[in-house]
Design brief:
alpha+beta; elongated; four-stranded antiparallel β-sheet; twelve-stranded antiparallel β-sheet; 5 helices; 18 strands
Length: 360
Amino acid sequence: MRNRIIYAALLSALTLTGCQEKKQEKTVPVYEKMTVELTSVTLETDYAATMTGREIVEVRPQVSGLITRILIQEGDKVRRGQALFQIDPVPYQAAVDEAVANVEAAEAKLKTARLNAESRQSLYEEQVIGAYEKMTADNALSEAKAALAQARAKEKTARNSLGYTTVKSPVDGVAGMIPYHVGALVSSNISQPLVTVSDDEEMLVYFSLSERECTDMIQQYGSIDAFLGQMPQVKLRLSNGTDYQHTGRVDAVSGIAEQGTVSLRARFPNPGHLLRNGSSATIVLQTPRDSVIVIPQTATYELQNRVFAYRVADGKAQTAPLEVFRLNNGKEYVVESGLAPGDVIIARGAGLLREGEKVE
């Protein structure tokens, strides 16, 4: 009986010792580690953007009247000078005919006034009439010349108005929606244009950066001109998530900051007319960096707006304050200082560690 008791006590002690060893083993956490190396990376940063055509023109009539013909379909490609609408020309043709008749009458009166002035000049030289009669004839001649000039100006105005009854496209482009129909009465002060023509051979894409980001980029290149001339081409991501096949170039930076943001403009070719005026998209800025240290953001944690990682030395975690590049892709950081090639760091779960903690 005594032997059984001693055996049970020894077994309990061994079991307790084993449990303590297991507990001690569990207290040493296991973390994924990585060795820091130099590499090359291209950072991509997304910005919401809107697109407009190179030229967007609201076509409005310059004269009043009824629309008698609509010469295009919505969505048609149109050329500069192409007829789009026909406004009733009859009253304007009548105005031209009247103006032509007035010009002919003014020409006849001018001839009569010239003959009268020449006759009075001769009589004045022969001292048959006085200076008053001569000056009266000269004034009548001047008046007739002015009346002819006025009649010709009215004829020109009437012909211009007649020409405006054929509404033409001022630019090459694509016709938008047409809110009017044949028989509608239109004028120069209508609320909606007859049609909007958008020149979409090249699209202008507008997006915004924070004032800090824009300043950092310009300082990186040295000046706005250098920034526009040397900045890599940008990509465009369409609303369906696919990348546009052509790249573009940033060609303008606004000189005014609004609510902490600065507007930029990029140009993209549009040979297939896939891009449309007013569409939304995403500008993707690419920033290549060579021979840099890149670590996952899961290997870092933030404290008081600073970024830290844990370097592993002698099996213990050591805090490493980092300076990271101003841009990131949301998954990785480019480390500018704080780590060196060959350093071993905790690759995941750095926020769970403490300084000096043993890790495996």
